[in-house]
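User: Can you predict the 3D structure for this chain?
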Amino acid sequence: GAFAGSLVVFTDMSDLERLQAQLLQAQKMEAIGVLAGGIAHDFNNILTSMIGFAQMLQVYEELSPAAQAGLASIEREGQRAAHLIRQMLDFSRRSASAPQSLDLAPFLKELVKFLERAIPEHIRITLDLAPGEYPVHADPIQLQQVVTNLAVNARDAMPTGGELRLGLARFTLPPATLAPCPGMAPGEWVVLAVTDTGTGIPADVLPHLYEPFFTTKEVGQGTGLGLAQVYGIVQQHAGFIDVETAVGRGTTFRVYLPRHEGAGAPTTPTQTTPLPQGQGQTILLVEDEETVRQLGQRVLESLGYQVLTAPNGRAALAVYRSAARVDLLITDLVMPEMGGIELLRQLQAVDPALKVLALTGYMADGAISDLAGVAVQGVIQKPFDLATLAEIVHRVLAAG
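Assistant: Here is the predicted structure, written as structure tokens:
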């Protein structure tokens, strides 16, 4: 009776030991995440230049077919590297996320159709969900990544065939009860389960399950980033993940996401028109990485814009003051001398109507909350696609 509120009394030492082990694991994962986020920031600048210049050069008609094919290969490999970095950023919870109201029932039904094409025929896919809504607040692309990664691992655990079961359930955690995962708050949860009838996970592998670059697959067969990415995405969605496994009897991963009222149907992305042109508007591009700055200037000028550039916020203020007009500011967020957030605060104090696009290689924990204090019309994630840059710049400038 003395223990009130949501305090959990440990019934035996195994609960306490489990909590201590998970706390140690969380601290280790956080340290690796900080490292991954730091590497990814610089890497994304390099990839932005590689992919961007490869895309730009492909428009030259005088290039031989062999040169065109070589550039296409460079672009493709750059995109593969960008995918790896995206996985690292998802793991370290530093990727830009676009959560929306989402009902997981229709979302999962659509995803099963995709998986049926990707998973071999000797594995049977079944969907187990009771009628009703399963509303969450989530980024559909990231959730698709979670389910796909878990499904691919399940496939690999069933080389001779078996059953892959995807399930949804509603779960209520009452106050003052031991949660399935430490740290889960009492309340309403949606549970997404991915079950296989495969080989199971050996006990010595379990402690390393979500660590980046840890893999049991052959060299060249896997990066060891799949479950690390799953872990990061689930954490980014204020969710939890646990695993139940027995060697030779299969594995179930359960992802717990907070139930979110007011979920709607997932929005389908609109088709972008090919490279909409500008009408000579002036854009101030602020980026400390020289090759990314040169790329951005060349792309924007080829689209019909006037472009002013600066290597940091302090230089950008001087350029802005001497310019006849600036219709749009595109600024990196992390720069020496003066970062993008401080630049925005100073410029918006002078011109509150200034249109702004933020350019970022990763969303550091502070940057998302910092952006809330300034007016930004959009975020361009590095490495960006030239068509995406053209479309978002055109859209923001056209918005009156």
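Confidence is low (pLDDT under 50) at residues 1-10, 263-273. The radius of gyration is 24 Å.
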